[in-house]
Amino acid sequence: MSTIRTRFAPSPTGFLHVGGARTALFNWLYARHTGGTFILRIEDTDLARSTEQSVQAIFDALAWLGIDWDEGPFYQSRRLAIYNQHIDRLVDEGHAYYCTCSADQIERMRERARAKGAKPKYNGTCREKGLAPTPGAVVRFKAPVDGTTVVADKVKGDIVFANEEQDDFILRRSDGMPTYNLAAVVDDASMAVNTIIRGDDHVMNTPKQILLYQALGSPLPEFAHVPMVLGNDRTRMSKRHGATSVTAYRDMGLLPDALINFLARLGWSYGDQEFFTRQELIEKFDLDRVGKSAGIFDAVKLNAINADHIQAATAQAIAPQLLPFLAAQGWQAHDDAYLHSAIATLQPRSKTLQEMALQAHFYYNEGLNLDEKAAKKFLKGSVLEPLRDLRQGLAELDGFDEPSLERIFVQLMEKFEIKLGKIAQPVRVALTGTSVSPGIFEIMVVLGKQRVLDRLDRAIDYIESSNG
Ligand code: GLU
After folding, report:
1. pLDDT tens-digit series, residues 238-265
2. I want to staple 325 with a disulfide (CB 3.0 to 4.6 A). Which of 224, 247, 357, 463 is the partner?
3. 92: buried, middle or exposed (CB in 10 Å: 19+, 13-18, 0-12)?
4. Same domain, residue pair 206 and 84
5. Which pTM does this prediction carry?
6. Among all residues, which ones are annotated catalytic?
């Protein structure tokens, strides 16, 4: 096949759903994997439901995910003349016709069909009338009445549809707007899209679209219908299963690479490998490995994958993404060496950026509040002397690195005949205000000598004042 051309064609009627993002991702990965072209098309012909905010929300979500496009965005609402040209041609060539049946007539037709146990479809009243265009008339496709249409699906295999089941479906509505099937086929054909990857909720549209390609004399693309994303109770992913909007995951502190990794695994697999970098996904993604069974959206697994990506990323890469979370905590942080070294200590302990920001409090809270329980438990009179001694040893230290710090602690333990645990916890409380943090040597190096001395002084004051 010539160069692969894929597209993502969202209808801008709300935020970008994780299922939609998975569709965008598969198309993008396939284009990137094959060195092809990825097109973005906004399907906004439903004027009542499409909004500018939704378009923006889709752009924002794709930008955050790092899914970029080579052509577009094309807006269907700006291409009405093109659809009309094709509809007129289909009428001229006998593949479509004007229909003036009223909504009531259609309803009665359907009821009669249902009463007979037949499929409720248009009965062809206007099919052979050769009606001229009149205001309010719709244009219908003259669907073949016999034979079959086969969808040769890359994921599902051949799916055979009997043409007699096919309705004379509408191409142009009474308000003059094209229908989804018409606009999608005209666009996919004229944009030379040759691979259509989308959710299998569209399988029923595909025979209609194939008939349209044939009527228009355009070559058929390949179709790959991917099973829907399901919640862990195996019903279609919805709000009940957790957030469904892509940007909600951004706001919870997921890394875009982690969500990409997770979404790629919803329906695609590569042996039993779970962790993939973006580059690896591009190298390894192929339609052959897209499975027939639905992907289950498991939020616990998503968090675990996010933790792995946080661990694998560089602190420099995490820093700009962490800043908004730190700001939300009220911390004035900057993308600088201090932040990078702080992040490095928190990477192994954070599942999300949100968690990381919470744990980073002591790096930024200069007025450190001592947690009362921790202070009472660990800042006791018995550690006053060792803390004073430690403070003095640290003050005299030239290099403030882990080996030097360790040496000071070893001397202290020998002098006071105490174990590390006895002194580490009071020091931790002094430096972080709490009893949980990364290793004390690590955080001391990051905090730097002055902050460490100030905080030890404060702890010493606290012990002195609380012990009268
Ligand atoms: N606008 C359609 C949707 O959002 C696109 C379907 C397609 O990919 O053909 O479902």
Report:
1. 888 878 999 999 999 999 999 999 999 9
2. 357
3. exposed
4. yes
5. 0.94
6. 239
